[in-house]
Amino acid sequence: MINRVIASLLLLCPLAARAELPPALGQLGDISALQPPAVPSPGRPAPKEWTVLIYVSARNNLGLEAINDVNEMEAAGSTDKVNVVVEMGRIKCDPPFNPFAPAPKPPPQADWTGSRRFLMVKDADPAMINSPVLAHFPDADMGDWRHLAEFIAWGKANYPAKKYLLVVGGHGSGWRGVKPPPGNKGIAYDDPSGNHISPAELAQAIKAGGGVNVYASDACLMQTMEVVYDLRASAEYVVGSQETTPGSGWNYEAFLKALAARPGDAFAASQAVMTGFSEFYGAQKQSVTMSIVRPALAGELAKKMDKFARLVAASPEDMKLYHEKKWGLRSFEDEDARDLYQLMKLYFDNSPTPAVKEAAREVIIFLSEKFVARNDAVGYKSRDANGISAYFPVFYLNYKPKYEYLTFSRDTYWDELVKAVVDSKK
User: Fold this and answer.
1) Does residue 181 have a cis bond before it (omega within 30 degrees)?
2) Considering 264, 297, 330, which residue would you say is the last residue of a domain?
3) Would residue 83 count as lying in a domain?
4) 3 state SS of 399
5) Fewer CB within 10 Å of terminal CB in the chain, N or C?
């Protein structure tokens, strides 16, 4: 869902073995003391083909959109092959103010607060959530990775399936939720607590919850190399957008009905997500991006990016090249996110150094033939979006030192290259 304050937030705010390893699960916290609430159903159900776990973080200005999303989930409902298990956390939100129109009437149930869990039961009421509430947390912190981990484990224990698809929805801004230092960006951020889930914490939550087959972000700007690198052991496929997304988010009815109609393997499930987003908005002539990538290959891609970074850093001519050609690169809502394929194409087409051209070519081929399984760049505003972004600021003042705290930065020379290139233009 689109972060309505993203523009202001962005304005404010061989591999090298360096620094310490990413924090272990025990260092980030312990979820063993969290007791999952009992599900009011007799016995353990037989496994279905899929359980879709949807974590909707709307304890922010998405509280009204979240109600609409959950009603879309009910329009599809759970089936004999697919469980749809949801946690929605929200706060009261006023409808958008329009001085030229009568004050809009809030939708039913807009006074709900806290966090509620549901097993979606199909109904035809587009305004009311009628699925029974299985658990209620009056003040759950949706930005706490441990709460997400407990939700994953709870959903899998009580609604077993052969395969699992996790969706995390809410505001998103890619890698910028890295901790430390403290920041107000990430995914699933929670206004009352001021907390959010960082890329490393997202990976830890999925690991602690027992893993999933597909992970998908219903959030802005999450399909970056830095985020996917942290998720490299979390799922078979990662689905997300390089760009901001419309405020209404996915069409969950279309997504879940497509999955129920063809509950195949993990790639088929990932394609069902595309049905509910890029295909849906494309039919409406809106510009959106969405891609499916293979996170298990992120380590190999990181090695190729590391090689490229070291070669460019050793070449004064190639250090200058970015500043000479950067204005022709694709610009996202986060102006410092470069489309990785397009960035490599810039160097392949223009570098005077054969070794740099070859390193760029290797990244291009790996992206197009292996890493990106499907890329939907729909509409005229989405041209030159090729499925995955990476940080490369336009100006030296835009460089964020907290970028160096990322797992990807610790494991590669990319952050050193980025800083050297932007600093060279001071």
Assistant:
1) yes
2) 297
3) yes
4) coil
5) C
Residue 392 near residue 343 (C-beta atoms within 8 A): yes
Domain encompassing residue 330: 298-372+386-423
- 289-to-1, 9, 310 alpha-carbon distances in Å: 13, 21, 30
Same domain, 154 and 199: yes
Same domain as 255, residue 190 = yes
The total number of residues written for the chain in this structure? 426
Q: Nearest-5° angle of CA 336, CA 371, CA 321?
A: 40
Say yes or no: 302 and 393 in one domain: yes
Tokens of 126: 């587009």
Tokens encoding 88: 């929605």
Query: Which residues are CB-contacts of 412 (< 8 A; sequence separation ≥ 6)?
Result: 15, 16, 302, 303, 305, 306, 309
With a CB cutoff of 8 Å and minimum separation 6, the contacts of 87 are: 54, 55, 56, 115, 116, 117, 118, 151
Same domain, 63 and 163: yes
Distance, in Å, from the CA atom of 209 to the CA atom of 215, rounded to the nearest integer, reads 13
Which of 327, 325, 365, 368 lies closest to 349 in space, CA to CA?
325
CA 197, 53, 252, 117 torsion-angle sign? negative
Q: Report the CATH number at residue 205.
A: 3.40.50.11970
Q: For the chain, how many structural domains are there in total?
A: 2
Point out the least confidently predicted range of 170-179, 254-263, 381-390, 416-425.
Answer: 170-179
Could you report the per-residue pLDDT of 239-270, keeping only the tens digit for each?
999 998 887 789 999 999 999 999 999 999 99
